[in-house]
Amino acid sequence: MMTNTRHLSFLITLFMVVITPAGAQIGDLPDLGDQSAAIISAAEERELGENFMRSARHQLRFLDDPELNAYIQSLGYKLAKLSGSRQKFHFFIINDNSLNAFAVPGGFIGVHTGLILTTQTEAELASVLAHETAHISQRHLARMIARSKEKSSLPTIATLIAAAMLGGQAAEAAIAMTAAKSVKNQLDYTREFEREADRVGMQILAKAQFEPRAMSSFFQRLQTSSRIYDMGAPEFLRTHPVTSNRIAEARARADRYPKSFTQDSAAFHRFRVRARVLSSDDPEQTVKYFIGGLKSGKFTNENAYRYGYSLALLKANRLGEANKQVALLLSRNPGEIDYQMLKADIDLAMGRLSASLDLLTRAHQSYPHNPVINQRYASALLRGGQADKAKQLLRKVLRKHPNNPVLYEMLADAAENSGDPLTSHRALAEFYYLSGNAHAAIDQLKIASRYTRGNFYDQSGVDARMQEIKDEITRYQSH
Question: pTM for this one?
Answer without folding.
Answer: 0.85
